[in-house]
Structure formats: C-alpha cells, structure tokens
Amino acid sequence: MSVASRYQVRRYAHQATTDPASLGRALNVSTLVTGTLRGLGASLRVSIEMISAASGARLWGQQFERTSDDLLHLQVAIASAVADSIAGRLQPAQRKALGTAPTTLPAAYDHYLRGRYYLARRTGPAVGRAVQELAEASRLDPRSARLRAELGVAYSVYAAFGRSQDSLLQLAAAAADAALRLDSLSATAWLVRASTFYLSQTAERSRDLSRAAGAAQRSLSLDSLDPEAWHVYGEILMDAGADDAADSAYRRALALDPGRAVTLERLARLDQYRHRFEEALLLLDSALAVEPGFNEYGVQYRRFHVLLRLGRLADARQALEYAGVFATWLRPFVLLAANDSAAALAAADSIPEPSMPAVVAIAALGQTDRAMTMLEAVASPTLSTYKYLRLPEMDPLRGDPRFQRLVAASQPVGFVR
User: CA dist 160 to 40, 125, 202, 256, Å?
Assistant: First the structure.
C-alpha cells in the first residue's frame, strides 16, 4: 500500500473539482480520504469519509467531536480510525507510535504544526516563518526534545539559504545539543547535527565530510523511515563524489515521500553530473510540477543548461525568461548556440569577473586558456569549488593538468563510503 505525500495532495486542495476518478488518476491512488471541519462554540466537529476513487462510492465514514484544546487527541483518533478502516486493527506497538506527539500542550502543538507546514514549502520567507513558529513551540514546552530538534532542522534549512549562516548554524547546533540532552536517541537531533556539520564545511572552507556522514548514519540507524534524513545523507554522498550511493539515498527519500521537490532537484543535479540530461530534465520538471514556485530561479538555471545539452534552444530561451538573477550568466550560452560568437563573447565579458559563472561561459566559448587562468584566480580548495568543477559545463577544461590539480586539491577528504 502506498500513500500520496502531502506535497502531491496540497496542489489539489483548493481546486473546485469533485471528480474522485480524476483525483485518483492524478495522485495514482485507489482510495481518497476527505473531510470537513466545523466550529461549534468551544468544540470542533470533524466529519471524515473514505471513498473509492474509481466509483465515488462511500466506503467508510465517521464523525469526531472534541474541544479546541484537545486537538492532539483528535488527530490521533482520526489517524487511528482511518488506519483501522484500511488495514484492520493496529497492533499495540503501531498504535503507540501513532499516538506519539512532540508535545502535550495544545498551544505548542499548534505552533509545531504551523512550523512544519512552512518548513515544507522550502522558500526563504516560508522557512523564516517556520523558525518563528517552532521557536515559539519550543518556548512553550522547553522539555520537549522533539520540538528542540525540529527547531534545529528549521535553523539549518534557513542557513542553507545563506542568511546569517554562521549564527544560524550555531543556533541549530545548540538546539540539537539541547534535544540530545533531553533524549540521546533523538533521530531528528542527529539529523540536525549532520546538517550543521555539512553546512559548516563550506563556511569553514573545509573538505572533511566524515563528521556529517557519521551523524547522518546515526540518525538513519535510529529512524530509517525519515525522508529528510535520507535526503541529507544523499547530499553528503553526492558532494563526496559517491554518486551511486547518493542516487540510492535520494531514491529512498523519494520512496518515502514521492513529492519532495528538493530531493527531485538534487537527484536531477546528480544526473546532470553524470551527463544523464533526459533524466535530469524529467526530474526538474517534476520538481516544478509537485511544488510550483519551488526554488524557481535555481531550477530554471539547471533546466537551461540541460535543455541546451539536449539541443532544445527554443525551450532553453524560455527557461532563461524565468531564470531571474541567473539570466546574465546564461545569456552567452544562448548566443553561442545561435552561432553568434561575437555577441556571446560580449555577453560573457559583461559577467562580473573573476567568478565561476564567468569561467564557465568563457570556457564554453573555446577560450580555455583564459578560462583556466581565471579559474586558478577564483578557485580555492573547498567543497564549493569541487561542486563547480563537477559540472558538465567544465568539460572543455578537464584535460588541462592545472584543472586536474584543482580537482585533486578540492575533493573531499576523510570520508568513509
């Protein structure tokens, strides 16, 4: 039995369609669960029903009434009832796991749910709001290890957007440490440690991924069903050059949550490294389909290069229109593909240099000596440099011994696959 993820379902939430068959086909599911929520003074009434996607026939239904202060128990009651109706009676251990909540305080739980919602959107403003909500949840219930750990996740994700990265990583690490003092077996706290170790490598200009990998493995040993942990582990593996293992980790994340736009985009990057451009394009298009607006500029930047590799110039031009801040970096490639070398060179010269984007554009124009000289000026033996050197757009420089020395100097060390 498979369940459509929240990412898949969310884009249909506000559509006017009431056709179960269409929704079933779109989500690739055979059964739909729907419901209504009504406020009755200080009480809430929730009506839940299960219907067949193929026929629209009602298979099961139930009503629940609780006070607004009893949302925690209401959620568990609904989840248990739905699970029972699908798969029969739950075993005691399964029911205990289902009933495990991060807090027993309704107000803290409300902030927790809001924080998780905003965190899933993976945009800078939304993640900033997630930090606020989860910080308030943790303030209301400071004894909850889960809330502390989830706050650490939000801090580490926010740091990945480049906003006050050093201070956010310190806050993430502090939240993880606090969670582990409360619960040494918190898988989420170990995940935060993995993320902070990983992000710190770039900030500290280090190439050692061993601590990050070890923390991710520890998190997965405690909870192997967390798609975020598999995603973070895949990120570490990819940056270490362990492509096959990274592919496996990303696909484990997607098997657990098929609509993770961020994982689809990372898997596309991995396919781009491996010159699998058709597969990369499908993954990038899927990321935009399941989460419209997700990292729009970054995804279109990657789509542009993939489309050019596939010889689809018209589509690449269209991607350029949505590439935002990356458009200046990409324009030389369009002009070069259109056989206007002079204009392409002028566009490349307009890129602020020295910079990695300028290196990529100038190398594509065939000026490899100039590109290599610029690359030596801007490159440093860091993880960020290694990521750039892996791009297919660097192919014109790969035969140069100077390029090979830069690869060797920036490649991650101390990592046990």
Answer: 43, 13, 11, 23
- Cβ(291)–Cβ(261) below 8 Å: yes
Nearest Cα to 252, choosing from 226, 289, 281? 226
Per residue in 64-100, pLDDT tens?
Answer: 776 655 666 666 666 666 666 655 554 554 454 445 6
Dihedral angle of Cα 251, 252, 255, 261, to the nearest 10 degrees: -60
Task: Tokens for 1, please give them.
Answer: 């039995």
32: helix, coil or strand? strand
Residue 252: pLDDT over 50: yes
Is 322 in contact with 284 (CB distance < 8 Å)?
no
Instruction: Please give the CATH architecture assigned to the domain spanning 6-98.
Output: 3-Layer(aba) Sandwich (3.40)
Structure-token pair, residue 247: 């592919």
pLDDT bracket for residue 379 (50, 70, 90): confident
The number of C-alpha atoms within 13 Å of 55 and in the hemisphere containing its C-beta is 5
The tokens for 173 are 């690490």
Contact 144, 164 (CB under 8 A): no
CA–CA separation, 189 vs 226, rounded Å? Answer: 12
Q: What's the token pair of residue 304?
A: 């542009």
Closest CA to 371 of 347, 340, 348: 348
Give the domain ranges of the chain: 6-98, 351-417
Alpha helix stretches (DSSP H) within 56-164 = 71-87, 92-98, 106-121, 124-140, 145-160
